Amino acid sequence: MLLYQFCFIAFTCVAFCREVTFPPVSGVQHALGYAPDSTPNLSLDLSTILFSGLATYANLPYVHCLAGDDHPIEKYDIAIIGAPFDTGVTARPGARFGPGGIRQGSRRIAAQFSWSVYTGRNYFQEWAKVVDCGDAPLTVLDNTIALKQLDKTHRVISGRKANATDYAVPRIITLGGDHTTTLSALRSTYDHWGAVSVIHFDSHIDTWDPAVLGGGISHYAGVNHGTFLHIAHEEGLLLNTSLHAGIRAPVSNPKYDLQHDRACGFHIVRARDLDKLGMQGIIEKLKHHVAGTKVYISVDIDVLDPAFAPATGTAEVGGWTTRELLTILDGLSGMEVIGADVVEVAPIYDNPGETTVLAAAEVCTILTLTLP
Ligand SMILES: *[C@@H]1O[C@H](CO)[C@@H](O)[C@H](O)[C@H]1NC(C)=O
Ligand SMILES: *[C@@H]1O[C@H](CO)[C@@H](O)[C@H](O)[C@H]1NC(C)=O
Ligand SMILES: *[C@@H]1O[C@H](CO)[C@@H](O)[C@H](O)[C@H]1NC(C)=O
Ligand SMILES: [Mn+2]
């Protein structure tokens, strides 16, 4: 009897179950990029699907920018390069995984879907060909060698002919990495463009004299994420029209540190100055201060409050919100920006919602547009 019932149920199911057809996954994803008046192509064409394959920044094409001379590669105008280096950090390590984290945070960003509702512009479809060059190969065991490898990475990537004719050489946006990595970028911009004004978004001044921060231990220890701007000044890479934005971390010696900061060519806009000046006031102050000079924009993600960017090496409370930073960065377009970075992203401290890497990915998108 039992056997009979079982056979009956099995038979009726074969005979009467609905045939459920799920739409092919490629069809659903294709529809994201379709014009409103066309019908999605539900074939199984897998060749043009977004959000799959390996993660490049913003689904941009990967180019092996560090290939040897015998290996011809596509031309580009703006190169994204990861700098997985975090042994110059003075607190929490982990920014060596920053480039991968920022790419993960950018999975939903794509050229075909990037028209800004604020500016009406598409960060990836203007004059420039933007590509992701992957990460620089940096040894994790020797800072001196790693920074020389990063210097050379910048030389090779910026040493090629740009795709567009207006600019002779490509420009670079670095994904850090701790802030020490900005030193290599500034050496490279100096080679092509001379000394620059740095607009340095950070909660810390990062101009500490190596004699104060690390150099008392060894010369080697004096090259770190809190001294790189001192070293850049010493090497003559900076104009005295540089400034910090978002500063709030305490200093170790108010007289010496701040005087020294001015001697390195910096003016300070503090985090709470935003409360008085408003965002437009901050934008005008930054633009006015660097007017007429070539500009490098460096964004330490710790400029944001830890509520918006917990995943960083030296978090400081009382910072700007993500929206405030994005508005200020949008306001900086139109200057002559010759390079940029977003650094100090240490994904291990991020939350399950990926708050920090999402913010860093969006910052990088706007930086792409500030390069005119
Ligand atoms: C749909 O894509 C397939 C594979 O690329 C192509 O052969 C076919 O012509 C496309 N159909 C339409 C209506 O565009
Ligand atoms: C790159 O250069 C080629 C040849 O000049 C041009 O056709 C193409 O539009 C350029 N690409 C971009 C994205 O500017
Ligand atoms: C900045 O440098 C310029 C040119 O070298 C010089 O004329 C000017 O006095 C300097 N300004 C400050 C504040 O040091
Ligand atoms: Mn910093």
From TrEMBL:
The keyword Signal applies. Residues 1-17 form the signal peptide. GO terms for biological process: putrescine biosynthetic process from arginine, via agmatine. Mn(2+) binds at H179, D202, H204, D206, D300, D302. InterPro entries: Ureohydrolase (IPR006035), Ureohydrolase_dom_sf (IPR023696), Ureohydrolase_Mn_BS (IPR020855). Its cofactor is Mn(2+). It comes from the Eukaryota. Keywords: Hydrolase, Manganese, Metal-binding, Signal. Binds 2 manganese ions per subunit. One of its GO terms (molecular function) is agmatinase activity. Pfam families: Arginase. Belongs to the arginase family. This is Arginase.
